[in-house]
Each structure stands twice: as C-alpha cells, then as structure tokens.
Protein: Nucleotide-binding universal stress UspA family protein
Amino acid sequence: MKSIIVPVDFSEQSEYALKIAASLAKEHKAEILVLHMLELSTAMISSAEGVQVDQAVFFMKLAEKQFETFLDKPYLKDVEVTPIIKHYKVFNEVNEIAEKHNADMIIMGSHGTDGLKEIFIGSNTEKMVRHSNIPVLVIKEDMPNFKIKNIVFASNFDQENLMAYEKASAFANALSAKLELVYINVPGDNFLSTADAYKKITKFLDWAGLGQAVEIYNDYTVEKGILNYSDMVNADLIAIPTHGRKGLSHFFMGSIGEDIANHSKIPVVTFKI
Structure:
C-alpha cells in the first residue's frame, strides 16, 4: 500500500476517514492524498468577468485555509500528506488522480442517506463507490483503535467476481485479517437449492484455486442477508463487489454494493467489477 486518497468536505465524518488513513499510512509507509472538490460552476471558472473570477479565487483561498486547519492534527505527524483541490465535484476525476498517483484505495467518511433523498439525490458515498476503479473503504464513525480482524466477503460467486475476490483477499492479508465468504440465498427467481448453491460455489472456488469454505445464509433480501450475517459473526468489515451501475439502470436496479455502503453500521470496502 503506497498511496491512499481521502476525499474531504471538512466534516467530522471526513476526519473519521482521515484518522483511519493515517493509521494505515503509518503502518505501510504510505502517502495520503487529501482531496477536496469545490462545487464551482463552469461559468465561474471560465468567465472573464471580474466578479465571477474574484468569487472563484475566494473559494479557492477559503479551501486552502480550511486545509491548513483541518490537516493540523497530531495523528498526521510523520505522515506524508498532499492536499489536492479540484474546481468541480466530478467523481470521475478521482480515477484520474488515482491513476496519476498510483493510489491503492480511497477512504471516505459517510453518514449515509435514506428515503427520498437517497432515491433522488444519492450520497457522495454512493457516487464515489459507483465511479471509483479502485477499492473504496467507507467509514461511518470514529474508530480510535482501528483494527480489522474479521472480514465478510459477500458475493453471488459468478465468475465476474473473481478479480473482486482476489482484491478482497489481498486487502485482508494486508490487514492480517480473516476473510469469511458468504452466499446470500433469497426467495424468488434467484433462489437456489442447497445442492445448486454448493455446485455454483464449488465452481467458483475451482476457478479461484481455493479450498476455502463458503457459508450459505438465507434471508428475505441480499442486503438484509449481508447485514444480518455480518452482525451474527461479529464482522469488523464487509467486503463486497459492485457493478457501479449508472443512469436508469441504477435507478431501477440499484447496486447492492452502494446500498450496503450506505446502510451498514460497520466499515464497508467495495471492489468494482
């Protein structure tokens, strides 16, 4: 682990993520890229009019000053920290930053959303999970003694999830954590008999060259199953693949990865398929 991106809006949730990033950076001698995305309009940036230019400069200077205060923390001592300010709130830009700096993961704080706000607006967490090409670790609360011992990896065990599993396994190894695999069986068209479920899982394990056991857990929905199983085994973190659906596909079908990241009380790390 060489480089970690932490998107911040200077909230307490952002600081929760920054503390975790500092902990991992010290352990792995990694750099932290602290990213703040301004919500300036294209007109404001490109305008030749003095008033709009002055407004853009004002917001840039304000962000720089906020960075000074926000990053003046004792837990960042002896950690290489690079502040980055982007003019727009464009989540695709995060992939450009990740590629440029060879970043390994994104850590971000979230308070989650629900109800109509989630349907029509979505949270920054959902958008980051949807667009990011690298793993996204979502933190919901302050964790002074961040230690991950037990990770639940939930999957439908289709072949397309192999790379996500490999990334989750590498992530667990980096944290010296145990990785538990679970298949959530739900009623309806996707229901599988125990025999068929094990047949599907065995095929996946053969593809991956694994001899690891996989738990089959029954519940009414995949999301509830993942959350309930993780609670039952006292998991410290949930790891899950996500398709990162966009547009109408996301509106009608949603993404389990995004929903789990939004609603889980424990940290969640997503791996884009």
User: Anything to note?
Assistant: The beta strands are 3-7, 31-37, 81-86, 105-109, 136-139, 150-154, 178-185, 214-218, 237-242, 268-272. Confidence is low (pLDDT under 50) at residues 115-122, 247-254. The chain has two domains: 1-144, 147-273.
